[in-house]
Amino acid sequence: xxxxxxxxxxxxxxxxxxxxxxxxxxxxxxxxxxxxxxxxxxxxxxxxxxxxxxxxxxxxxxxxxxxxxxxxxxxxxxxxxxxxxxxxxxxxxxxxxxxxxxxxxxxxxxxxxxxxxxxxxxxxxxxxxxxxxxxxxxxxxxxxxxxxxxxxxxxxxxxxxxxxxxxxxxxxxxxxxxxxxxxxxxxxxxxxxxxxxxxxxxxxxxxxxxxxxxxxxxxxxxxxxxxxxxxxxxxxxxxxxxxxxxxxxxxxxxxxxxxxxxxxxxxxxxxxxxxxxxxxxxxxxxxxxxxxxxxxxxxxxxxxxxxxxxxxxxxxxxxxxxxxxxxxxxxxxxxxxxxxxxxxxxxxxxxxxxxxxxxxxxxxxxxxxxxxxxxxxxxxxxxxxxxxxxxxxxxxxxxxxxxxxxxxxxxxxxxxxxxxxxxxxxxxxxxxxxxxxxxxxxxxxxxxxxxxxxxxxxxxxxxxxxxxxxxxxxxxxxxxxxxxxxxxxxxxxxxxxxxxxxxxxxxxxxxxxxxxxxxxxxxxxxxxxxxxxxxxxxxxxxxxxxxxxxxxxxxxxxxxxxxxxxxxxxxxxxxxxxxxxxxxxxxxxxxxxxxxxxxxxxxxxxxxxxxxxxxxxxxxxxxxxxxxxxxxxxxxxxxxxxxxxxxxxxxxxxxxxxxxxxxxxxxxxxxxxxxxxxxxxxxxxxxxxxxxxxxxxxxxxxxxxxxxxxxxxxxxxxxxxxxxxxxxxxxxxxxxxxxxxxxxxxxxxxxxxxxxxxxxxxxxxxxxxxxxxxxxxxxxxxxxxxxxxxxxxxxxxxxxxxxxxxxxxxxxxxxxxxxxxxxxxxxxxxxxxxxxxxx
Amino acid sequence: xxxxxxxxxxxxxxxxxxxxxxxxxxxxxxxxxxxxxxxxxxxxxxxxxxxxxxxxxxxxxxxxxxxxxxxxxxxxxxxxxxxxxxxxxxxxxxxxxxx
Lengths: 839, 99
Ligand SMILES: Nc1nc2c(ncn2[C@@H]2O[C@H](COP(=O)(O)OP(=O)(O)OP(=O)(O)O)[C@@H](O)[C@H]2O)c(=O)[nH]1
Ligand SMILES: [Mg+2]
Hints:
The complex is a heterodimer. Chain A is mostly helical.
């Protein structure tokens, strides 16, 4: 650690959902994820603040119920405390739940680090009618106790003061808390401690009483420490084994059981002495809400309502109102950027068509995303998300998933567009390794935000009358397929992963805080934006290179240029030599005029109302009065008519059309002969089975990098003119009119739905599973699955002569039949398991 | 409630047969009914699992209240002021006795 010696290291530890991250944010002014869902922080985070000119480095540790090495978080926290030796540990304690929290307090204090208690959630405790005698508590646990209300910033100054005090005192009176484990255990601990103290290295490194306790608890990490560092490890370990066995035969319970029970007894005693219950309210508000929300019948209905509301707010309000409204500003920004770019040539085409358009196409979804993530954050923060896991556990379990799979799936886009990246990340809170792996594998099958534009595009071309039906069909069929896949995976490739029973704490409900919700939503959205501007940019460049090079052959290029020259000549002839504007429009002047023309046309389309139009005219006239006369059909600003300018207008209008047509033809040819074109045609014989032609192949290949590319690449291939925008549907409809049927579209949509995750998601899968093998698996199985289904749909439809809607119907029947069978089989095997336990 | 009583008897019978004179009738948590208060008699599962349960307040000897029965789905229990959802599978492995 390269920590300068004048920095003081402070660790925030505590049980999940106690408010560590909230206090961390309050102390340091940082922006850590906070949510009313246990297990939000899974890695340690650092930040700092100054107190009295002293720099304090704060580490936010993951929440742990205890300090065994049972879970990843527990290991992270414990290793940190053990090896980094912070100057102070602040144990963040949920005051409304003191007894259970004390369990961790004891364990922490045994590690011998100077400690303070932050007694958080004082407001909740008060609400529940708990009165805590702070002084008494501080006396009993032998360390300073600071009451705080993290989310309101109450008590933060006091906490900083206490930290400062402890760090100055160094060996403060903290060690005065020493649990008495009673007649049965204490003598054993004493013996062990003594034998450990003979080992110089161990004695120097670790608090021995702690080590002795851990060894008695049969903690695997303690074993490892001994076998790594002790000189006579065999002696020590065999000694421990003997003591444990002796204890068990003598007391008819294991040492760790006895130790745990003792800790609870002591905790109970302390609570009894320090906490007074004012009103004995048996049914809290939370309980009463849960009665409805977790009800067998009302619960799922309520959940359905919540999900529908989410769908409505994101897709209807967000997609149909907010996004178009925001788009006005995005396109303004895009135009500004387009204006800054070099005027012409390859570089402009790369920057504008490749990167800027790619990025802005995605920015269109940003408002929808933000709304979705806001809603999810509200659900998490209110405490309802834990109930969702509770309700869904039953159904999901039949498919080898877990109640906690719900949040990742919702983030991934079960209901509406989501993003697989936060979805895969959210699986971290899951303890059940098997269900977690299964969830990671199926989250990318959800309908992420980037797949939706393609659906919308194809639906608007091929299924105009059934838009809503098709979109619902897509999300239901993908969900069904994902569940079947989950079930198959958990029974086959994931069979041997460790499975854990479902246990989840249900935090009490509270009103979400605005800052907390905003923070989470913005952070998740930011993650997405970062992806857009890093990966998409990189991919856009590659795609652009592949569809631009090697370019036309010399002859063809010369031919195209020739065509353009001819058109220009015709134009010059038409306006005639004696036209005073001829000189102005000759040579480079024509190009300049072309830009002026495009710019004017575009602005004019955008200008609404008489006043705006007048202002626009004035502006353009000021910029170039001659050009203005031409674009304004011969009329100057003063209303004076100019015959010559009018003639130039008419001729240029024709030329413009002709040039645009030539340009489009040229682009198409370039794509056709490009590397990507060759690749697409190379795959065509196989992909034809599912109805994909070479253009689609290119788009699919590019979307592997990021799904957002799909529509963008299709756009480039179907060459919408540079300044067009948003009319891809028209261009595609025109272009595909003869060759495409709705069946093509359906097969393509289904393939895209199941298609492999984008590279960014795959990287996340790699991070979360810690295995390249699984990453590759996640990349390959969806291609096979998607391709099979696409072929089934396309060939089946063609051979049987069915319409796309009929195929959809049959496919739904088929998939849902399998789904039902899988569910029943899953239920039955679960039942069997239970029965064997009962007997 | 009537049904539950029968079940308790059944279970205590079994205990008697298997382990001789059982002091308390015990049953898996899965058989407790909603609103019932029970005491944990034993926790099955691996050592790691037991410790994890302990740290969440589920200990041999601790009293919990069943707020909602699973079947299907997880159980909802109260241990002090904490609410825990416990999967049906787990609920079959936690032995409790009514208090
Ligand atoms: N009423 C109340 N709520 C609080 C207080 N402190 C934190 N919260 C809320 O409690 C919830 C949990 O806070 P976090 O800071 O995420 O808890 P954590 O300890 O970091 O949790 P993990 O990272 O999951 O271990 C959030 O919704 C906070 O807004 C408090 O003093 N009073
Ligand atoms: Mg946290």
